[in-house]
Amino acid sequence: xxxxxxxxxxxxxxxxxxxxxxxxxxxxxxxxxxxxxxxxxxxxxxxxxxxxxxxxxxxxxxxxxxxxxxxxxxxxxxxxxxxxxxxxxxxxxxxxxxxxxxxxxxxxxxxxxxxxxxxxxxxxxxxxxxxxxxxxxxxxxxxxxxxxxxxxxxxxxxxxxxxxxxxxxxxxxxxxxxxxxxxxxxxxxxxxxxxxxxxxxxxxxxxxxxxxxxxxxxxxxxxxxxxxxxxxxxxxxxxxxxxxxxxxxxxxxxxx
Length: 256
Ligand code: ZN
Ligand code: FE
Fold this sequence. Notes:
Layout: E1 5-11, E2 15-21, E3 28-31, H1 36-46, E4 52-54, H2 60-63, H3 66-73, E5 76-80, E6 92-94, E7 99-102, E8 105-111, E9 120-124, E10 129-131, E11 136-137, E12 140-141, H4 149-160, E13 167-169, H5 175-185, H6 190-204, E14 212-213, H7 214-220, H8 229-235, H9 242-255
Parallel strand pairs: 3-4, 4-5, 5-6, 10-13
Antiparallel strand pairs: 1-2, 2-3, 7-8, 8-9, 9-10, 11-12, 13-14
Helix pairs in contact: 4-9, 5-6
Zinc ion binds at residues 57, 59, 115, 134.
């Protein structure tokens, strides 16, 4: 079986779209549909035909293109069961632990509530790729709009258990601002210092900082590093639980 191809493109002000293409069957999935025209252009550029949309969560910048793309292509729309009332165009709903097949590959659905209550992340188990929506970002995590910090920390822990080589695509290019905040609470992390400089160079060239990997995030993303002694020292939280440290980091980022 030929390997799946992944094509990432910038859309809206700071979103990313990703197309997943199976050269064998010709099937192509779009992860979310931030903007119908941008998804259509990306498909045309690659010469691919849309067969699926995989929806992470109900926010407008992830779903607004679905209706148009679906009526144009008749594609199958798969998304979170817990947000089916907010996303009217779903053909198939999925919940935590569900799997479905795309191009002969098992896609495992991971529920990661916090940013929204129904958020689903899609793990392409054979390709080793996960789509984290607005849950995990490069050097960051999504704002907690609908859930609470405890819920978001549990979601982070699910993603932390994926193999470190797992490639991570997410919904937004927020990495440079995230790096600045990360350095403020983890200044002695040599890997973070190096990565922040790489990110500045990429952005100066107008290049994306994504995808990333679970392993790189485990080493440098403060939202996955609440157990780290250096971060705890900076926060004065040496004796707190990992979850409480996570909540404090999220609060500081909100107010940064
Ligand atoms: Zn969102
Ligand atoms: Fe978003």
